[in-house]
Design brief:
With 165 residues, the protein is of the alpha+beta class. 23% of the residues lie in helices and 30% in strands. It has two domains: 103 residues, no CATH class; 45 residues.
Length: 165
């Protein structure tokens, strides 16, 4: 019971709470041995029956898996984010309002499928530097932390194994 109350308090205490019509909710499901990572995107709608989540997109490997949170909140008069917040967990959720990320869960993608090219500096194995264009895929904050640790470790190994004369 404490976990439910704590989770509800975290949701209702968030600066972007409560949900508004047009808000987008992205739920990210981690990869398993059987299925790749996938997402579903919902939009908050204000209808005659009150608030509801409408499934607008998904990358599920099977259509039958998507849409679990579609419809009105389970609690009469409740917020449409309550059930996903409690059942999927805030770490798997991203909330977008007016195109801006207002909540980014640690294991959530906020813009599934985003892959914008960008120019950056790169260092070659011989130590030379130059500009490169990279095509990025979005990663979760947890994946970004893991990647940063790998980059730092690799840089330390390179410095150790290839000292400057």
């Amino acid at each position: 019971m404490d976990a439910l109350l704590s989770g509800h308090g975290a949701l209702t205490g968030a600066p972007w709470y409560p949900a508004r019509a047009g808000d987008r909710l992205v739920v990210t499901y981690e990869a398993t041995d059987r299925d790749p990572r996938w997402t579903e995107t919902y939009e908050v709608q204000d209808g005659a029956g009150g608030w509801a989540l409408r499934l607008v997109d998904h990358t599920a490997p099977d259509d039958a898996l998507a849409g679990w949170f579609a419809g009105s909140p389970e609690l009469c008069g409740g917020d449409p984010f309550e059930t996903p917040w409690v059942e999927a967990g805030p770490d798997r959720l991203a909330v977008l309002r007016d195109g801006q990320v207002v909540h980014q869960g640690r294991h959530a993608l906020s813009r599934p499928g985003a892959a914008d090219p960008r120019v950056t500096m790169a260092v070659g194995a011989d130590g030379t530097t130059g500009l490169v264009v990279v095509q990025e895929r979005q990663c979760t904050p947890a994946e970004a932390d893991d990647l940063l640790a790998k980059v730092v470790t690799r840089a330390q190994e390179t410095v150790r194994d290839h000292p400057r004369p």
